[in-house]
Amino acid sequence: MALPLSYNWRNLFVRKLSTGLTFLLVTVVVFVLAVLLSFSEGIRASLAATGSPRNIIVLKPGSTSESTSVLTPEETNRLVQTPGIAQDAHGRLMISHELCVQTSIPRRDAKGNLANVAVRGVDEVAFDLHEVVRIVEGRRFEPGTQEVVVGRAAQQRYANLALGDEIALGRLLNRRFRVVGVFEAGGSAMESEIWAPRTIVADAYNRHLSSSVVLRLEDAALAGPAMDYINGPAVNLESKTEVAYYKDLSSKTREIVILTTVLITIMGIGAVFAVANTMYAAVDSRRREIAMLRTIGFSKRSIMIAFVVESLLICGLACVVGLAASLSFHGQRQDYLSNATWTVLAYELKVTPRTVLTALALAMIVGVIGALAPALRAARTQVIEALRKA
Amino acid sequence: MLRLTYLYRNLTRNRLRTGLTLAAVALPIMIYVLSMAVVDGVERFLENSAKQLRLAVTQKASIVNPLPAGHRPKIEALDPTRTRLISVCGLRWIGGKIERDPRPLSTLGVDHDTFAATFPDYRLTPEELDVWARDRRALIAGRATARQFGWKVGDRVTIHPSVPPYIPMEFNIISTAEDAEDPITLICRLDYIEERLKEEGWAQGLVNFFFVKCATKADVDYYTVAIDELFAGSTHETKTQDEKAFMNEFITQQFDLPRNLTILAGVTVFVAVMAAANTMSMNFRDRTSEIATLKSMGFSSRFVFTQIQAESLLLCTIGGLIGALGPYIAFMHTRLGNLTVPLIQHLEISPTVVLEALAISVLIGIIAAVWPSWLAMRMKVVTALRSLE
Amino acid sequence: MNADIELRDVYKVYRKGRIEIPVLEGLNLQITEGEFVAMMGPSGSGKSTLLHLMGGLDVPTAGSVRIGDARLETMNEQELTAWRSRHVGFIFQLYHLVPVLTAAENVELPLLLFHMSASERKERVATALEVVGLADRMDHRPNQLSGGQEQRVAIARAIVTDPDVILADEPTGDLDAKTSLEILNLLNLLNTEFGKTILMVTHDPKAAAHAKRVLHLNKGVLERDEMNGLFEATEASI
């Protein structure tokens, strides 16, 4: 036999201040958790969304990312023999030579600090090969012209990247390029980039060797043999699927995730103590009431459940409010300087279902653990003694 | 004396509640201390950078673009007497990894002849400097990195650079820079890298940045402008800033830890306030009749006010002590003290942070007791007594 | 010191939201020093309010309350607080001892309001506890004492400052018959031996019988004021 929920609900209002403070406390903890998670979810989402399992990225052995890799034409020529490369509608092999350089662009926030934005020099094949890339405004650049297309995230995070704007690129920042298009790439890391014609970029930066080559395969299942071939003596370069490459990049943010987890755990434990404190007080002030309930036939178990439910009500509501508050951060653009590529990655803070579930789990755990010991004390209330004592 | 007895007994009256509150205050204070230790570390690092009177010269468009090594004599020519501009050291980043280990290294090749003069904060011994000058393959390994990989002076290590020449290079560890500010970076000689680049047919004579050691703060300001003017209009324009600004740019771009951790610390203090306030209000509730009795006996409102304030203060200060001294002692006496955090080299909990945390605990105590002690002060004895009947 | 009590045209009205509840309606009363007065009446008759007014815990809506030289209705909160500490001792139905302090410490509490050396305080506490017959229970905490013992500690606490007036609100309300009798005898002793003026609110006629004078309140007015003829008889029956 369980006590009605309205009993729990009304009891919350008997000790308004105490309930309120506990509620607020759990709300803040959930809020902090949700915001911290939305950072790491945002980063994870942008890196995870980037790769295609059908694409293989080829780098110089030893280099850690595209920005530290340099491939000679002699090396890239060896790649043509790789088994399983897809062909486009015109029967050409889908091989994209890409040149990764950087430029400094001010951020759009109040301080306007310069950010090191990635500039990718590509040929037209890149647009077909990176299937997630879609022009959503304007058009593609014309090969051989000083035109660029910019990623949606870059456009939102950095200044002067609107359609029709001119930006300075080149090793000396002396070449003017016009923004002719905006592309989306499924929220991936590429959306933080600026894409420009490869030959023009090579000229502007005086860098004629490619950074990486991306191959599109006919089927994701062919990735294994293709990579074996490339990593083997015939080509002797380093290859990874795009998915794996970006996953490795995101592992660099692991330290931040660990720090976050440690802090949130400490905060969560603190919240457990606070909730326990409140629930103990609730039990103590209701000893006679509990004795009465036991007298008229409520079981120990239903008394226990009543107090756990009460704690869960506080924590559950706090979770909802904390999450709601964290939604105000949802969609905000932030960026960070990757220490693997030395370019910035603009990502979107995301309150994902995962965030919601994690926050809910935390709130429920805090609620249950915090209420367990007090509820046990409630259940063990000595009926006669409690009734006699004023 | 009785007042103190009363205070003490009040704290031990509900041991469970006191214990839970202590924990609920101590843990946020612990977060505060840890966060501030990180913030502190960054600040210490930046302060040291500022103290060193060094300039960082990078390529104008992007720090990633290289500069010609030939800039060095041109910069040196700005002060041939070496009285204001003490030394110029070119640096080239080669990153690197060791065989079959995914952990990335941070290796820098430097001009070996000017390294010691430019980076006296590495505090190398004369013997070490002697070996450094003679051995082309010398490697100064940051002590934290050395510990992590189990290296010691005299070891031979092979590093695979992440940039050209890309081929494995052998180094001899000549020092683990025990007294350096930076315990992570590996320092090797640029001429060794150049030699390998030449063998492998890569472009030579490029550096990522120059560090310029100046004599005074005024010289720092002067050369910040003078160096950029020197190369203005050339094909290799430069951007010169003092080392602190240069470092700060990296730090704020990597999740801006100092700012974000400060915010987090503030929020957790708020959590502690609520936990403590909750306890104080519950205490007040439980003792309404007692406070009414005290007042009926003729104790003033001020007495009950200060009594509640004192209790809250004591409670929170003890909580603060646990929360602050816990990590302090842990970091002083256990291996946690060797922990390295990205960017901030090593985590150190300074007495200042501990004192700050204690001051905040006192503040938490005062704020937590504001409402109950005010209620107690304003409480009408008659009303309180009647409500009990 | 002169400690007679005079109440003149005392009105007390409580406000509960918009509703005004009259509790005392033009009460006149004189009590001379050294009297033992019981106040009886149904609940809501205003007897507790009267006690609170005489103890300076509350002020009348209209009228005057004089205790000795003190005109309570003219005093502010601070003055009343200071006055209470010197001139009245309170005894409550539920004792209201501080649970974390020992019997001696509880009794010592009001002495903290006086400039008094520790040794003098100790002496006074010992005397007070001796008067109530609990000298051997000094170091016990309230929860180690029986109800009657707790009330004796409360009485010791009320007399330790040597007040002129002792105000007792249902002092035996929570005690059994035998213990009640002990407490009442103790009050009697304080009245006769130490000359304390005692005002006791009670609803128990047996308890009231111990007083020399009984006031009957009803709906905020003094209904009857009688000298207790039964007094000698009750005492004789013990």
Short description:
The complex is a heterotrimer of chains A (390), B (389) and C (238). Chain B has 389 residues and is of the alpha+beta class.
**How many distinct helices of chain C?**
8
Number of helices of chain A: 13
Q: Tell me the major beta sheet of chain C.
A: 6 strands, mixed
Q: What would you call the structural class of chain A?
A: alpha+beta
Mean pLDDT of chain C: 87
For the secondary structure, the number of strands of chain A is: 12
Largest interface: A-B, 57 and 56 residues
Apparent shape of chain C: globular
First-residue to last-residue Cα separation of chain A: 28 Å
What does this structure look like?
The complex is a heterotrimer of chains A (390), B (389) and C (238). Chain A is built from 13 helices and twelve strands. By secondary structure, chain A is an alpha+beta fold. The model of chain A has no long low-confidence stretch (mean pLDDT 86). In chain B, the strands form two sheets. In chain B, strands 6-7-5-8-4-3-10-1-11 form a nine-stranded mixed sheet, sandwiched between helices. Chain B has a two-stranded antiparallel sheet with strand order 2-9. In chain B, helix 1 crosses helix 12, helix 2 packs across helix 12 (301-333) and helix 12 runs antiparallel to helix 13. Chain B is built from 14 helices and eleven strands. Chain C has 238 residues and is α/β, with parallel strands linked by helices. Chain C is 34% helix and 27% strand. Chain C is built from eight helices and ten strands. Chain C has helices at 47-54, 77-87, 103-108, 118-131, 147-159, 177-194, 205-208, 230-237, and strands at residues 5-16, 19-31, 36-40, 62-67, 70-71, 88-91, 165-169, 197-201, 213-218, 221-227. The two termini of chain C are 33 Å apart. The chains are: A alpha+beta (390), B alpha+beta (389), C alpha/beta (238). At the B-C interface, helix 1, helix 11 and helix 14 of B face helix 1 and helix 2 of C.
